[in-house]
Design brief:
Number of strands: 15
Number of helices: 12
Bound molecules: zinc ion
Strand content: 15-25%
Distance between the termini: 50 Å
Radius of gyration: 22 Å
Shape: globular
Largest sheet: 8 strands, antiparallel
Number of domains: 2
């Protein structure tokens, strides 16, 4: 027997008592079967037994092996479960108001998850503003909705009538796209914002990047990295608190254990984020701006995408292992990346604290090797963002001028490395999405050791 991985997009039926709260969910299925067709039928039957209706096959069945999930705790666990039970299914739901993923939920026929309580807690966390500035204290009176992507010169520059395209899983769009998550037009005012800084500290700290073009100075690079990091800390802390709440509210032993496992993995990533933030806190506090290292690709053209994110690089651009994300005993090294407005175009900025140089330098060297071997740097950098960054905004003018096929190719890959159990191969950064971005870089500035 082979193991197939596939994913449905589901919505709650009107019989579902949480119908008004949960807009939809991904049902990820691991199925032990002889052929992909039977795998789909078998999984569809199982999913339909609950109060959810399948609206599309989000990911067609692919044959998977254990190695697809070696870095993914949840995926690996489900893969193994399928080997003994014949099938394993994980649901990931999101709220009706906007895309707020509730994290994995596993259903058994005897169990109805308290989605209402979960979503309520998640909203509570999201709206719990706090200042993440290294010197936060009494002066942090007014928490503001801060943009994690540079707004005045970047988001605005790529927008059209105040709108951009961004990755979305809203059902109204899914129906049009046969159940696939897609890029949807949204207003830029609330896009990529988070309640992670007070007004005073946000203004005080980020002026060199909010009011000025990227030069780059070390201080600017550090600030861009700090903002990516702060957003991720804000999000991951919310996920952890929501999981803790869920664990405290459930008596179901299977769900409890499942959430505990998920929490332990999330906690590991979060603790590493906190450790990195402390390093950056110290650098900023004592103006040690040269603690940062970076590689900046400069383009004289107009930007068509704006983004900000981070990654614990597990594999380099060619597929070589850099660090083991599943080994919870080691400290993870971190790279941040973003686009930034420059006086003569825009920059694609990779940066890291010097303590992450071991992994990050190898990561950047593999990129240089790919370029040396004739791969287009624009294609490589574009692929990296589409796969690894959900916090990304696309120019409507550019998006609407793409062919239908090109948009489908991007949508198929969009954010796929962000889900904790989607199978990814070690070579996921090596190819795909060629000839789409149109990105051309004119020079590179690096402060690598
Ligand atoms: Zn503050």
């Amino acid at each position: 027997m082979k193991t197939y991985f596939l994913q449905f997009k589901v919505i709650p039926t009107t019989d579902n008592e949480k119908y008004h709260l949960a807009e939809g969910a991904f049902a990820s299925c691991w199925v032990l079967e002889n052929n992909p067709e039977t795998a789909v039928t078998k999984a569809a039957f199982q999913v339909s037994k609950y109060d959810w209706e399948i609206i599309g096959l989000d990911l067609s069945p692919i044959e998977v092996s254990e190695e697809h999930f070696t870095q993914r705790d949840i995926g690996l666990e489900q893969f193994r479960k399928a080997q003994t039970d014949g099938m394993a299914i994980v649901y990931m739901a999101w709220a009706r108001d906007k895309k707020t993923s509730t994290g994995p939920i596993t259903l058994k026929s005897s169990y109805k998850p308290d989605i209402q309580g979960f979503i309520k807690e998640q909203k509570k966390q999201k709206n719990r503003g706090r200042c993440l500035h290294f010197d936060a204290g009494n002066q942090c009176q007014e928490i503001i909705s801060a943009h994690s992507i540079q707004k005045s010169r970047l988001l605005l520059a790529i927008s059209k009538d105040g709108h951009v395209y961004t990755l979305s899983s809203e059902v109204s769009q899914l129906n049009k796209s046969m159940g696939k998550p897609t890029y949807q037009k949204k207003g830029i005012n609330n896009l990529s914002t988070f309640l992670g800084f007070c007004k005073y500290h946000d203004n005080e700290l980020f002026t060199p990047i909010d009011d000025q073009y990227l030069v780059p100075t070390n201080q600017q690079v550090l600030l861009y990295a700090y903002r990516s990091l702060a957003r991720e800390i804000f999000i991951k802390e919310n996920v952890l608190n929501t999981l803790r709440h869920r664990i405290s509210k459930t008596d179901h032993p299977f769900i409890k254990q499942y959430c505990e496992d998920y929490k332990s993995g999330t906690e590991f990533g979060f603790n590493n984020l906190k450790r990195h933030k402390l390093l950056y806190d110290q650098s900023l506090k004592f103006n040690k701006f040269d603690d940062v290292r970076y590689v900046l690709f400069l383009s004289n053209r107009k930007p068509n995408i704006a983004f900000s994110g981070l990654l614990y690089p597990d594999f380099d651009f060619m597929g070589n292992q850099l660090q083991h994300l599943g080994n919870h005993k080691q400290e993870l090294e971190l790279i941040t990346f973003c686009s930034a407005p420059m006086s003569n175009g825009w920059g694609y900025l990779f940066s890291w604290h010097h303590s992450s140089s071991r992994v990050c330098i190898d990561f950047m060297r593999s990129l240089a090797t790919m370029m040396h071997d004739g791969h287009n740097v624009g294609d490589i950098l574009f692929r990296m963002i589409i796969l690894n960054c959900e916090n990304c905004a696309i120019s409507p003018e550019w998006w609407e001028a793409l062919s239908e096929t090109q948009r489908e190719q991007i949508t198929a890959k969009g954010g796929s490395n962000a889900l904790p159990f989607t199978p990814m191969k070690n070579t996921y950064l090596r190819d795909g999405l060629e000839g789409i971005s149109g990105w051309q870089f004119d020079s590179v500035i690096s402060s690598m050791d």
